[in-house]
Amino acid sequence: MLAAGVLLTRCDEPTREDWADVGVHLGGAGAAVTGWDALRAKGFTLRTPPPLVVVLSPSAMNRTVGGVRIRRTARPFDRSWAPLDAPYELTPVVRVPRALADHALDVDRNATLTVVSRALQLGLCTIDDLYAEYRTGPRNRSAGLRHSLASVMDGARSVAEATAARRLAAGPIPSFELNVPVVDASGRTCYVLDQCWRELRAAIEIDSREHHSSDAKWQRTLVRHNAITRAGLAVLHYPPALVTRRGSTYVEEVREWLTARADELGVPLPRSRGVRRPAPGCSPEPVCLPGLRLPAA
Predict the structure, then answer these.
(1) How far is 83 from 285, CA to CA, in rounded Å?
(2) Dihedral sign from CA coordinates of 253, 258, 263, 269
(3) pTM of the entire structure?
(4) Contact yes or no for 92/79 (Cβ under 8 A)
(5) Angle, to 10 degrees, between the axis of helix 159-170 and the axis of helix 109-121?
């Protein structure tokens, strides 16, 4: 017996899916799985699970039964049912923004930013959705979600981008912009640069094959990078693992590269520091490369 009125009819140990069903049963009308398990049901690939499945309930008491924690909440939440042939199939789960906000209560900042970035990249929620969850949610243990929202609103789309921007802004590096669009002579946006030094016509891209959903997208990215370089923009590429692990070495390499780029162009190295942000409500001004020619797809 897993709980009052709930029997496991198999001989093996109960799974997380079993405990999710127990929690929804005990949570009563309107209960739904949230956090790590709800994200997994929505298709996220996540690492080590937390000890307990978390189920939200609008009416049940707060309690822990076996492998599930039932949490009463007065905050409304929408729910849907996990599809067939998926983890937690036909189990009610909360929407991605609420699941992510609840998951952030139990993990560190980097883990939160990873999931936030992935959700936004896949179009599973918007920044406004997540901000609404942060604004109406608990303040205790909300630092991870707050940090992640600040990073993505500042232009960072991954943990590595946020780490790189933070380290460069704190080091002896000329001021730079984030997520700057590159346009051709017709004004068509052809690419978006992770970090850009406009006066030096230089940029850094933090990217890897694992951040692309297919080999075809990865190859198209490489083609665009090569076209941008041919059009006169110097681009330095870093894999995410190197940025997050090398720290001061990475910053020094960038400083030396930008100094050499300034010498190459015969222009002074800008003295300003930090991230250069557009005016509130505005997007970064595009970098125009009239000679940019992208090959046909």
Answers:
(1) 43
(2) negative
(3) 0.58
(4) yes
(5) 120
Q: How many C-beta neighbours within 10 Å does residue 241 have?
A: 11
pLDDT tens digits for range 217-271: 667 777 777 888 888 899 988 887 777 777 778 899 999 999 999 999 999 999 9
| CA distance readout (Å), 75 to 34, 39, 133, 190, 199 | 13, 19, 10, 42, 49
Length of the chain: 297
Residue with tokens 């000329």: 174
CA distance 162 to 109: 11
Contacts of 41 (CB under 8 A, 6+ apart): 33, 82, 86, 87, 88, 91, 93
Closest CA to 50 of 97, 10, 106, 129: 106
C-alpha 124/C-alpha 127 separation (Å) is: 10
- Integer Cα distance of 133 and 90 in angstroms: 25
Instruction: Please state, as a whole number, how many other Cβ atoms lie within 10 Å of the Cβ of residue 170.
Output: 11
